[in-house]
């Protein structure tokens, strides 16, 4: 066990971050009528956590992590977080920008010289991280034609060559297209700029220094402590979560509520990232989607005032997740679920937990 002083020392520059705080003890838990009503209505199965500046004030687990094995969900259960992976990826990219190894505004041909000239010279990392590249998603047609594609691992560079070379759909930056292949290209760029595997870079720059000890990508579905995926039913039925390693950046990470709670605080509230990087993460580039880089920034009406919140959501197989963080107070809500619930229902639930008025 690392003591508090050892933890700060291991965190390097992170230890100087203002407002650094750790998650509350695992015994935390109390009745919350909003949570209780939602759990009863939706037959919710998963973990709900509320906190401020990285310290949980409420944490409860409901239902089963694995129905067949009769393993109940706990605060420490690991869930697939799907597109919240894009948030982790964006943090890694911004840290590489801070190190001078990447540029948000340089053409992607800088690192992908074999990319077709029209997109290679006009698309930037900003376009990829905001899902506005215009590069068509060649992966989905390939998967539809041959489902075995999900069983054949390819490198990031190979994925870009196979699935990211179609004719542009629109000029970069002019439209939003939530294409997984944007993140294939981000992965290949990170690997080209660093000479290292993508997941190793994320561990070195993000999950390691943020002490996200339960957060990683890979085929860990059957490991102890990882929640199984289910169709909503009734009855609940096991659901496969097939994926390739190259999908990690856009949706392949797993995590816990505590890891996400503390990470949101350190990323949004402290000097873990530079001022310029935090501004980039919280500047909306696609207003109709509230989308910035790697996630959304939503406007919540709380006590009659509009408050901004970093808003990350994830959906893959039977997993659903929400990470909402108020940028003014540091209040955070984390919801992790493994029973295929409505993402809209989870978002509205998270709104209530942060005290937001119902949406119009």
Automatic annotation (TrEMBL):
Domain of life assignment: Bacteria
Entry keyword annotation includes Cell inner membrane: no
InterPro entries according to UniProt: Beta-lactam-related, Beta-lactam/transpept-like, Diverse_Enzym_Activities
Domain Beta-lactamase-related: 34-342
Alphabetical keyword list: Signal
Keyword Signal: yes
Signal peptide: 1-23
PANTHER family: BETA-LACTAMASE FAMILY PROTEIN (AFU_ORTHOLOGUE AFUA_5G07500), BETA-LACTAMASE-RELATED
UniProt name for this protein: Beta-lactamase family protein
Organism, as annotated: Caulobacter sp. 602-2
Source lineage: Bacteria, Pseudomonadati, Pseudomonadota, Alphaproteobacteria, Caulobacterales
